[in-house]
Structure formats: structure tokens, C-alpha cells
Amino acid sequence: MTTADHYLSLAVSKSNFFSLDVVKHYFNNFDWDGTISSILQTIGSLLLVSILFLLVYLIGKKLIKRTFNSKKENKASRFSENRKATIYTLSLNIFHYAVLFFYLYAILSILGVPVGTLITGAGIMSVALGLGAQGFVTDIVTGFFILLEEQFSVGEYVKLGEVRGTIHAIGLRTTQILGDDGALHFIPNRSITVVSNFSRNDMRALIDIRIDPNKDIQEMERIISEVNEKLVPEYDEITQSPQVLGTVDTGDGNLVLRVTIYTKNGAQASIQRDFLSAYLAALTNAGFKIPTSPVNLSNSK
């Protein structure tokens, strides 16, 4: 071994000894009791705060539910059931976000995170956050205007854009709509631009029956009128008696006999099917040869 190697070996040995000595000195002088006590105290505070906010959340939900249940029992209330259900779901939504915000604030404070400094410093990133949260804010504002203007309520049958179905819930950010096929659609409130509400007015069932060119049209109208006189008393949902509008050109080379029936909202489809079936059966028994009839449904105006 050369002299240089000898000195290098001594230097490494001294360095290792020094490192071990520093580590040993650190562990011997470390306040283990204070650190463990601080950790246990923090864990205890986190558990206590979590239990407290859980109780607040459960009790708050129960109070909100009891409040709205008492309003449902109040028959003199000026709010409809759908309106109450809408305000109820929105109240739960707001309460949920409020409790979550204060819970996170308390947790960060216990962990020693300077929440106040973070909130103050957030002004520096306000532009960036504003751009990122622009859609979120728009969702909330639009949701409040939907509720304020009573565009639709929970339980109503509507068409939002291309989605048609029953309103399941209205939240701060999204509106949930249960489609005709059973799918639950979550629509951001900012995406709701055109609302077609089918649950506010009487609906119109529009029935077109193709004409048999070999038969008398007046005879066809007479048979349909007889069917109307027989079926109308069986349906309380009919708000206006059926009207035979006469012969109409559908624009595709077909002449049809058009009948309109106004019903309560939600009943137009079933009444349309029943009356169409009765019309076809009566006309067939009278010797009419009727092709498959086109059917249209539209809301009253």
C-alpha cells in the first residue's frame, strides 16, 4: 500500500466515524417524548374535529329533512311539491359544500398549514384560478337563476338540449335528469341553454290517420266521432274534447285525417296510443283499409 492510499484510508475512517458520531449524538439528544406527544395530540385533534363535523353534518341533514317534511304536511303552503323537492336538494347541496369547506379549513389549521397566508396569497394566482374556475362559477350562477326563474323542478318532464327525461336533482354545478331509457344524465348547468318543459301546461296529442281513397271521408269522420264519444268519459286526464280537424296534407304525398286531443301533462302518450288503437280497430271493422298511421305528439301553446 502506498503512502497516498494509507492517508486516504485514514481519511475515510475518520469521516465514517464522524458521521456515525453525529447521527448518534442527534438521536441521543432528540426529544422523543415531546415528538410522540405532539403526534398523538395532533391525531387526537384530527379525530375529535372529524367526529364533530360528522355530527354537525348528520344533524344538519336531519334538520333540513325535518323542515321540508313539515312543509310538505302544510297544505296551505304556496310552494308546489316539485318546488319543495327542488329547494330541498339544493339546500342539501349547499350545506354539504359548506361543511366540507370548514372541515378542510380546520384540518389544515391543526396540521399547522398557514391557511390565512394561503388565502391572502391566493390573490396572486387569482387570474389563473379565475380562468380555471370560470366554468364552475358559471354553473353555480346558472343554477341559481334556474331556481329563481322556476324553469323546471324536480319530478318534471323536460328536454334539455338533446336530453329528454324527468328531473332527478338540481345541484350547484349540475342538473341530473333521468332519461326515458333509464340512464341518469349529469348536465353542467352552464350547458343548459334551451329548456323545454312538458309538465307545466296541458299537452296535445296529435293523431294522423291515413285516408282510404276508396272510402267516404265523411263516413270515416263519423266513425272517429263515435269512438271519441265512447272513450272520452273513461279518461279523466282529457282536458279538452277531441277535435276532428279534417283532411290534412302532410307534405309527403299522403293525405291524413287529423285529430287533436288535449290532456294533462304526462298522459298524452298513453291516451294517444289508446285512441289510435280504437280508431284503427273501428275503421277496420267498418271495412276501411288503413295503412300504418304516422303519429305526432306536441305540447300545447
Keywords:
301 residues, alpha+beta, Helix Hairpins, SH3 type barrels, 4 domains, five-stranded antiparallel sheet, four-stranded antiparallel sheet, 8 helices, 54% helix, YbiO_bact, mechanosensitive monoatomic ion channel activity
Polypeptide structure, described:
There is one protein chain. With 301 residues, the protein is an alpha+beta fold. 54% of the residues lie in helices and 20% in strands. The protein has four domains: 28 residues; 96 residues, Orthogonal Bundle (Helix Hairpins); 65 residues, SH3 type barrels (Roll), CATH 2.30.30.60; 97 residues, 2-Layer Sandwich (Alpha-Beta Plaits), CATH 3.30.70. It is built from eight helices and nine strands. A hairpin with a 3-residue loop joins strand 2 and strand 3.
Please estimate the helix content.
40-55%
Order of helices and strands: HHHHHHEEEEEEHEEHE
Number of strands: 9
What is the 3D form? rod-shaped
Mean pLDDT: 76
Task: Give the strand line-up of the largest sheet.
Answer: 4-3-2-1-5
Reading off the top of the CATH hierarchy, the class of the largest domain is best stated as Alpha Beta
State the distance separating the first and last CA atoms: 106 Å
CATH architecture level-2 label of the largest domain: 2-Layer Sandwich
Largest sheet: 5 strands, antiparallel
Number of helices: 8
CATH fold name of the largest domain: Alpha-Beta Plaits
Strand content: 15-25%
Unreliable stretches: 297-301
What number of domains? 4
- Decide which structural class fits the backbone: alpha+beta
- Taking all Cα atoms into account, the compactness measure Rg is 36 Å
